[in-house]
Amino acid sequence: MYNRTDLFKHKAIYQQQLANQLVTAVIVLDEKLTIQYLNPSAEALLGKSYRRLFNLAFDDVFPNSTIGAIRLQQVIESGQEFNDSDVSIQLGDHYTFTAEVTASATEFNQQPHILLELKQIDQQKQISAEAFQQQQWESARDLIRGLAHEIKNPLGGLRGAAQLLTKELNSEQQEYTSMIIEQADRLRNLVDRLLGPNQLPKMEVQNIHIVLEKVTQLVSFDNEKNIQVIRDYDPSIPDIAFDADKVQQAILNIVNNAIQAIEPESEITLKTRVASNQTINGQRVKLSIMLSIIDRGPGIPEDIQDTLFYPMVSGRSNGTGLGLSISQTLIHQHHGKLSCKSRPGRTEFTILLPISDETKL
Ligand SMILES: Nc1ncnc2c1ncn2[C@@H]1O[C@H](COP(=O)(O)OP(=O)(O)OP(=O)(O)O)[C@@H](O)[C@H]1O
Ligand SMILES: [Mg+2]
């Protein structure tokens, strides 16, 4: 049996940890409507850390939200809570989401405060849209793979026969067979890209920044457009297990697209952060590495945005449309997620790689 003091201590332990574990985003505002506290779910929802949001005014953090300072002021004055299941919240100038918000008057340190509880309600919709996209992508990829596989075998036969024939021909005639061999090799290259990565990743525990440094170096070696790579790293990111070659290839495909799209002398930003409570392939992942590749180019053409990751979707006249599909496969092999948000003037590709307890060092 617990006595009263023990029970109180026992309860306090749970209370202290509770806010950190909640899926609901919790924000505490003081009387002046500045942010005093937010739990990790709120940090994830707002995409900013407690340190950056502490003491900021509600109106500055939620500039165009449909709950304004006046409604919140009323909560403090009347002591009555309100619940609104359709609050539109805008973060930055390119991301809006719908949330269910409960605001209640409360006291901390004997001072009046407001407790805000936010639940993102379009997340569920987004998860099913993502699952649908994923299915579509997989069937398009499988179709192309099947086709590529069927082309590969006869192509091998064709090349082999041309090689045998070469031996029977004089040097002038051999020009024809070497032409056949050369073209067969070109096709073989294409077919291999269509088939996509076929080896399982070789996982090794290491730091993601090693790969980003390599990508930066590769860009600087072949830099006709004089593009500047800005590195915005979070050095505290833990090491995780991944295949460096594959992740590098996935990032390079994205970076190369950006280089092709932007003006000479422009910038590409490589940003890393630790993100909490992200949804990856329909599953909630507590901690993940969030890697963003950002450019300020013209944006993804509108007509290919929905099918961007499908194989053979290209907005360039000489593009094969395989780069992003390959990147998607490589990131999936790491149980991660690759997504993109784009509008003219800003394109951001985001790679999420889960940090699991086994992979964390
Ligand atoms: N950062 C970007 N800015 C503008 N458009 C982009 C960007 N990234 C990708 N795109 C568009 O997406 C298309 C698809 O890219 P993807 O890498 O899959 O194929 P590709 O570059 O056309 O061909 P491949 O990579 O196979 O040579 C590109 O053709 C381009 O139109
Ligand atoms: Mg490409």
UniProtKB/TrEMBL annotation:
It comes from Thalassotalea algicola. Residues 146-357 form the Histidine kinase domain. GO terms for biological process: regulation of DNA-templated transcription. Pfam families: HATPase_c, HisKA, PAS. This is Sensory histidine kinase/phosphatase NtrB. Coiled coil: none annotated. Its EC number is 2.7.13.3. InterPro entries: HATPase_C_sf, HATPase_dom, His_kinase_dom, HisK_dim/P_dom, HisK_dim/P_sf, PAS, PAS-like_dom_sf, PAS_fold. Keywords: ATP-binding, Hydrolase, Kinase, Nitrogen fixation, Nucleotide-binding, Phosphoprotein, Transferase, Two-component regulatory system. Transmembrane segments: none annotated. The gene is glnL. GO terms for molecular function: ATP binding; hydrolase activity; phosphorelay sensor kinase activity. Member of the two-component regulatory system NtrB/NtrC, which controls expression of the nitrogen-regulated (ntr) genes in response to nitrogen limitation. Under conditions of nitrogen limitation, NtrB autophosphorylates and transfers the phosphoryl group to NtrC. In the presence of nitrogen, acts as a phosphatase that dephosphorylates and inactivates NtrC. It catalyses: ATP + protein L-histidine = ADP + protein N-phospho-L-histidine.
